[in-house]
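Review this chain:
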Amino acid sequence: MSGQTQYLDLPGGRLAYDDAGDGPLVVCLPSMLDLRSQYRFLKPLLLDAGYRVVTVDQRGMGDTSAEWDEYGSTPLARDLLALLRHLDAGPALVHGCSNGAAAAVWVAAEAPELISGLVLSAPFVRDGKAGFAQKLTVALMRIPGIARPLYMSYYPKWEPRPPADFAEHKARLNASFKRPGRARVIAGYMSMSHAEAEARLDRVAAPTLVIMGTADIDWPDPVAEAEWVAGRLDAEVVLVDGAGHHPHVEFPEKVAEAVRRFHGSLAS
């Protein structure tokens, strides 16, 4: 499989992904409002380990088309379901970060035959209780004129130990938001809910690994959140000390090793 951008036409838009390598299939969903190049460090490690790796741009991001009727976890889940059926490669290991984890849970409940296992990184699989400052930030990000600069100013907080190419990736992300038709994408994601994923947690039978950075600012206590998710899914937890909301960006070798070990346990 080549690593060139491919497209899947869906009702309402066009989904961009790349597909590289041969071997067991791993589908990688980046966090909301980021690019599939979020997996630029983890992907080559998984390819070297013998996996086939597919990375996806969420709605309105990167090479995926801009204007959709809705954005968020459940629409992403439907897109993931369509992509897995399109790939027709048998059950896949899905690595979902943030709202990508919610999408993975949704598909595992609705179409378990398509999932061999779940790796839920910094998982948002329920709606949290936001404080006043967070509510204010979200409200401001729904205003198209200030959403992009506000979001870009907030973005570094998710990677407290940024990689060497952080500035370049951030510039690519900022440029993505400036492409035609994307003025309201950030606002669209600010209105999403993860309630449909939470409602399906008890229906998930797939083996699951939860990966959480101990410095993730999206929860008052990220370790407690990881343990709550693991308790609902009978999952294993891997904590990445010092990592923020994108552990696979800051500590790709640790995450790759955890994924390889977890996947190896599925065959034993």
The first strand starts at residue 5 and ends at 10. The chain has one domain: 5-129+193-266. The mean pLDDT is 94.
